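S1.2 Input.
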Amino acid sequence: MDATDPLPWSASEWSEATMGESLRLAAENLCTFGGFGASGIAVVREDHVVPIAIAGAERFLDGHGDPIPVTDILGQAMPVALFEDTLLPLAEDWGLLRYIPHDRSQMPEFGWRLEAAYAGTEWHPDDLLFVPVRDETGRLRGVLSMDAPTDGLLPPPDRRALLERYAAQASRVLLTALEREELAERQRLAIAARRLLSIGAAGASVEEILGRVSDELITAFQVAGLRATVFEGDERRVLVEKRQGLGELAPDIASVSYRSSKWLWDQQLVGLAARDQVLNFDGSPDELERLHDLLRRLGLESIVLVPLGAGDACLGTISFYRSQGAPRWTEAELETAQEIGRDLGRLLSTRRALLAEQEAVRELRALDAYKSRLIATVAHELKNPLAAVRGNLDLAAHLAAEAAEADGARPALEAVGRGVDRIARIVDDLLLLAAANDPNAVTRRRIDLTPYVVSGVEAVVEAVGRPACGVLTDLPDEPVVVDADPRGIEQIVVNLVGNAVKYTPPDGRPVSVSLRRHDDHAVLVVADQGIGISPEDQSHIFTEFFRSADPAARRQPGTGLGLAIVDRILAHHDGRIEVDSAPGSGSTFRVVLPAG
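S1.3 Output.
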């Protein structure tokens, strides 16, 4: 046969059409240019060699000489062990080619040959000529076979060289087809993994995350079912079990799974238990045999154990199981499963931390609400007795003024009065703090800040008398509009201006109060040239009841609540307060609010 002869009949079974056509043409080339009546290309699938392309005559015979349809040949598999351990050791080495004479071939019953006349030819129908196809690691990936040379002769050395060239070409086509198949599989699994993470990220809890991704995992890995277990200390809890279940595991099998999961996470591996092998399971021979019994009892082909973790912690595991007769796990599938275990582990770790943080926030809010209620209750309970003390103190002072011993009683009564005034200030500030901590007490609306800055300054002047140092205001002509609670804004001005006046010496420079709009913010600045605040104290001044250790500050009366109240009010207004101060150089407080 030469290149001008008609092309031989050919067929291919390959999932991807383009590569299927290439494999079919490669088989045809072995016939056409190699000079054979039939040729075949087989691929290694799991532990079998499976024909996937055939060229030549359409009629073949099986090992008993009976006709066999081509479709049966394409679906007929030979164990890899038979090929590697039995046929290859018998073969003569012809470079790429391997030849086994018919008297040594021990033709298996599932072999096939071309239906042709062999009488008087050098080639025997049971002669075998083939090419093992190995990848760069030396792993057997396929087999090329040729039968029935058209001239009836064994290929001489010069024809072998030509045949090797076409065999090498066909080998490259087969390896390329396998690479493309593996790449497509990895791409499919990568897409599935990304989809899994996007689905799982929407889960509100660990249970919801695993529940959301379980169906996608079953589809992606083509498994009969899965079980997701999380570890909580030494406890193991099954959160999700989908499709085929494992049921209640015997204690020793559950222990093997738990120990293996921890070890697998440390080693960054996955475990595989199949009917004919066990990889990376931490168990005794008896325990592993019981694992095999579990597979047989449940009709499973394999179980893959994938640890879920983040950092050094193994958080749980997902067990995938395939039914009896299902394909072996590919390297790409195991690698993807391991990567998904890492990604899900990180997602679970993040969600656990988030849930713990949310729970802590809820507890803190509850505690803060309780504290506010306690403060308000105590303050209200103190207010009535203080009113009674104040009223009776005024009466006692009036009576003492009429008595002969008035001069001796008056200083004591005045001291008691100052104490009552201080307690009253504390009660008033406690009530303000409770209100500032309560978001339900805030009623925000669109207001112009300017009138409330003016009324706040006037309230300070009225309370302390006109300050010796004076207060200067610099307010804009145009409105500065914000979304705010008017009472809260006025309280901020009263507290900041009151502090500035209190800590400025009588002969000091005036306190300045300015209001401006800068871009999308309203900025209120209260500045003084008073005693100033040390850097150490600046990190604490917004804490309830904080009083500076500075003697000059200690001499001034106060509850340590004023700036804390300002800070709480601003928190409910999406605002902030900044301070710039140094001892002996005064203080500048800057309030920033979103402008309306």
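S1.4 Remarks. Confidence is low (pLDDT under 50) at residues 1-5.
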